[in-house]
Design goal:
Layout lengths: L5 H12 L3 E5 L2 E4 H17 L7 E5 L4 H12 L3 E4 L6 H11 L3 E5 L10 E5 L21 E6 L9 E5 H14 L8 E2 L7 H14 L3 E3 L5 H11 L3 E4 L1 H9 L13 E5 L5 H11 L3 E5 L9 E2 L19 E2 L4 E5 L12 E6 L11 H7 E2 L2 E10 L5 E6 L4 E3 L2 E3 L1 H9 L4 E11 L3 E10 L7 H9 L10 E4 L13 H5 L1
Helix pairs in contact: 1-6, 2-3, 5-6, 7-8, 8-9
This protein binds adenosine monophosphate.
The site of adenosine monophosphate (AMP) has 20 residues, from strand 13, strand 19 and strand 20.
């Protein structure tokens, strides 16, 4: 028996049918054999560049075939991949670089200037990826790190979830079994590959099933609809904003999406009305699933039947029931398990849940205690085991499924010399779910327009974090000790 690893998944797919399609991009179908050879070449290049097992490689790409080549190539060389969002601006990338100290970086040619690392592989200049072969693979066990995925980012030191081969395999298996994926049945990569959803629900699931993965650079509803019609995927997982955009696109027509059998929505709340609209439009049951970067795959998920119930008290649609092999506990302030119907923090354990943050023993200890991983989400469980999310312990904003931490945006606003005080909150938004609003107090005598402040943020923050609404005020509500009351601003 080979050790369970992402490479064992690739080997199994190769053994089953090496010429079967592994990746579809811009109408070109590439086989598992192609993926194997290209990733061998890439592994050889990493070794030739002096990288040794355990060193890190930053992977900053959109959904393109080279993402898979680089990830598998790095795994073959024993190198740990650190996927990062290509929308990130330089300061956001620099914090991750400082934390994980990558020895190599893979990015688009156009982004190469953002990286100072000496070993760079660029994509988009006519396929300069190396072609030589690697002959030996370092022996790596299932508990060895495959990837570091940074959580959406509080301020201070970023937290990289250390994802082992075993974690990824457990995540891949969740999707393969829950969506009943079979060899040769295409999967639509609607979520970004740099997020755990893409890593386990697209790459992992496709390798585990021996299924083709349909890529399309970035999500665009029209393009996705064309792809669904042409390549006929059976499965996709995405944030609700993306799924909503799909059925709202002017070119949508139910006849175009008949190949889809299973659709998961994760990462952001789903309104019960949205699930109903999706069913009206497509005839499909949208299955709500819940997970975090640290859990790699959903740990709470809705089955294909029965329909997820709605909590009568809060009107929230259930996020599902505990996934097989996962334990979910709702824990009160004192650490005791809450009875049915009582709200508490959701704490989980399971094979896909990571056991550490990169070089952060303290953060690891705080989040990953004896009871399991503390999610920071507040939920309730009903008598039938359905779980509803009702609040967050954390201050995070969820905009189109992307996570925004108010502190990071506030820190950026404070960098502007005219800003004296700033508070950032999430406000309801019919399209993005929530959107980012900044309330700003200017320094005495300073003049600054909302447009200029927005431009200032745009240079320093990924677009989804930039405040869409900026309101100037004379003062902010504070506690007696001077702490800004974000919650009060929100309401
Ligand atoms: P991330 O680490 O970017 O995957 O974000 C994880 C967070 O997304 C969780 O802590 C939740 O707050 C939120 N989340 C994930 N899935 C759902 C869901 N199905 N419904 C509501 N919020 C969700």
């Amino acid at each position: 028996m080979p050790e369970p690893s992402i490479l064992a998944l690739l080997d199994a797919a190769l053994a089953a049918d090496a010429e079967a399609t592994a990746v579809i991009y811009r109408g070109v179908h590439r086989s598992f054999c192609w993926l194997d050879r290209r990733s061998n070449g890439f592994a050889a290049a990493l070794v030739a560049a002096g990288l040794v097992p355990g060193e890190r490689m930053l992977l900053c790409l959109q959904n393109v075939p080279e993402f898979l080549v680089a990830l598998l190539g790095a795994a073959k060389a024993g190198v740990v991949t650190v996927p990062v969002n290509p929308m990130y601006r330089r300061p956001e990338i620099e914090r991750i670089v400082a934390d994980c100290e990558p020895a190599a970086v893979v990015c688009e040619l156009a982004h190469a200037d953002a990286f100072d690392t000496s070993v760079r592989f660029t994509v988009g200049d006519g396929g300069s990826f190396p072609q030589t072969e690697i002959t030996e693979r370092p022996v790596k066990g299932p508990a060895d790190p495959l990837m570091l995925v940074y959580t959406s980012g509080t301020t201070g030191r970023p937290k990289g979830a250390v994802i082992s081969h075993a974690n990824l395999l457990a995540g891949a298996e969740f999707y393969r079994s829950q969506a009943d994926l079979q060899a040769g049945e295409p999967i639509l990569a609607a979520a970004p590959l740099f997020h755990v959803t893409g890593l386990s629900g697209h790459i992992g699931a496709a390798l585990a099933a021996g299924a083709p993965l349909i890529l399309s650079y970035r999500f665009q509803a029209d393009e996705m609809l064309d792809l669904i019609e042409r390549e006929r995927p059976v499965f996709c997982v995405a944030a609700i904003t993306a799924l909503g955009a799909l059925i709202d696109a002017p070119t949508f027509n139910p006849a175009r999406v008949t190949s889809l059998r299973t659709v998961f929505s994760g990462g952001a709340p789903v309104a019960p009305a949205m699930r109903d609209r999706f069913r009206m439009a497509t005839g499909l049951t949208l299955r709500n699933v819940y997970g975090l970067t640290e859990t790699v795959a959903p740990v709470i998920a809705c089955p294909s039947a029965p329909d997820a119930p709605v909590d009568p008290a809060t009107g929230a649609l259930a996020v599902g029931r505990a996934v097989r092999g996962v334990t979910v506990a709702v824990i009160g302030e004192e650490g005791a398990v809450c009875p049915v119907g009582e709200a508490g923090e959701i704490v989980v354990t399971g094979p896909s849940v990571v056991s550490a943050y990169w070089r952060s023993p303290q953060a690891t200890q705080e989040a990953m205690g004896a009871l399991g991983f503390r999610t920071g989400d507040i939920g309730v469980r009903d008598a039938d085991g359905w779980i509803y999310l009702i609040d967050r312990k954390k201050d995070m904003i969820v905009a189109s499924g992307f996570k925004v931490w108010p502190r990071e945006v506030e820190d950026t606003l404070y960098q502007h010399p005219a800003v004296r005080e700033a508070a950032v909150v999430g406000v309801p938004d019919s399209y993005r779910g929530e959107t980012v609003k900044a309330v700003v107090v200017l320094s005495a005598g300073a003049a600054l327009s909302a447009d200029d402040l927005e431009q200032f943020c745009r240079k320093r923050l990924a677009a989804y974090k930039v405040p869409r609404i900026i309101e100037f005020r004379d003062g902010l509500p504070k506690t007696a000790t001077g702490k800004i009351l974000r919650r009060e601003l929100r309401s």
